[in-house]
Specification:
The protein is mainly β and 317 residues long. The chain has 2 helices and 21 strands. The radius of gyration is 21 Å and the shape is globular.
Length: 317
């Protein structure tokens, strides 16, 4: 099946609100959303009305994300049957399977990673391993919080892990200080790498970054969460940057709605881009040209000035 055109796309059901300074924000990798779109598609010289739905079916802590693409023929009044004539077509309905949510004591998700994040997002911020329907990968995200310490991790593709990262954190005051806020102070370290941006194992073109952070949760409830934080990030062989700020999350009971905001001060050095591994990284990691191609990291030398400023972000669903 070859789609010649797809246009007039628009978002259905789920409405998100985002306002920010430079950068990108998408809904966090939480699950529970029902999003979709519709438009017109031309397949094999036949015009169809296209309906795209991405619901999640949840039962307790478990959730299954679906990816439903329907092509409706307005002349015959039928759904295009060739899209559903093989067992593999039904397997492709499943986008991901998850247990719990990001931020819970134990969290795992297998399949599409819509908005993977490590720490406060200074290096890995809402990374997506499946930029399009036809370029989907089976990734994995695994987090565990043991109280005094814990970790966050992800890999973009279990079959051929190329983009992968992890963060470990430690709460040094948890066992010695009885104060409810101070005892949750945490220190973290992050490492993330793309071992093969151009997809050619014969080339040595890997990209790596590491970071250090500190955070102090002010409120850690089921409805409201708030944290003061500091981040330092370094892209290996390139520049570094720092940020300090505050973040607030609001979760309504039953996962009916969510709103999140953060505001921070940034000090960014030459050849450094915050949120380097972001929602568009899979698209931008390597760009082919008529003379070969270039990696996203190859553009960092064009950042020739240090910058200082404020960054704000607001999103909801």
């Amino acid at each position: 099946m070859k789609k010649v055109a797809l246009f007039a796309s628009m978002i259905l059901i789920a409405t998100s609100v985002r306002a920010q300074l430079p950068g990108l924000s998408v809904m966090p990798d939480e699950g529970g959303a029902f999003t979709g779109g519709m438009g017109v598609a031309v397949v094999d010289n036949q015009t169809y009305f296209a309906i795209h739905l991405q619901p999640e079916l949840a039962l307790g802590k478990f959730g299954v994300g679906l990816n439903v693409n329907l092509l409706y023929n307005t002349k015959t009044g039928h759904i295009r049957s060739k899209d559903w004539d093989q067992s593999y077509d039904y397997l492709r309905l499943i986008r991901y399977v998850r247990y719990a949510h990001k931020g819970d004591p134990f969290y795992v998700r297998v399949g599409a990673l819509d908005a993977a994040r490590l720490g406060h997002g200074f290096l890995v911020n809402y990374y997506s391993n499946s930029p399009s329907y036809d370029d989907r990968k089976i990734g994995v995200a695994l987090d565990a919080d043991f109280g005094s310490f814990g970790f966050e991790s992800f890999a973009n593709n279990v079959a051929r892990a190329e983009v992968l990262g992890g963060r470990v954190y430690w709460r040094p005051l948890r066992a010695t200080v009885g104060l409810p806020i101070i005892k949750n102070f945490e220190l973290g370290a992050t490492y993330v790498t793309d071992t093969d941006p151009d997809g050619n194992r014969k080339t040595d073109d890997g990209v790596s970054a590491f970071g250090l952070d500190a955070g102090l949760p002010l409120i850690n409830g089921s409805v409201v969460r708030s944290m003061l934080y500091y981040d330092y990030g370094k892209i290996v062989d390139y520049g570094s940057g720092q940020a300090a700020g505050i973040g607030v999350d609001f979760r309504f009971p039953g996962g009916l709605a969510m709103m999140s905001a953060r505001f921070e001060r940034r000090w960014l050095g030459k050849e450094f881009e915050p949120n380097f591994f972001n929602a568009f990284y899979e698209v931008d990691r390597y760009t082919k040209t008529g003379f070969g191609g270039y990696r996203k990291v190859d553009l960092l030398p064009t950042i020739t000035e240090e910058t200082k400023g404020y960054f704000g972000e607001l999103y909801g669903r």
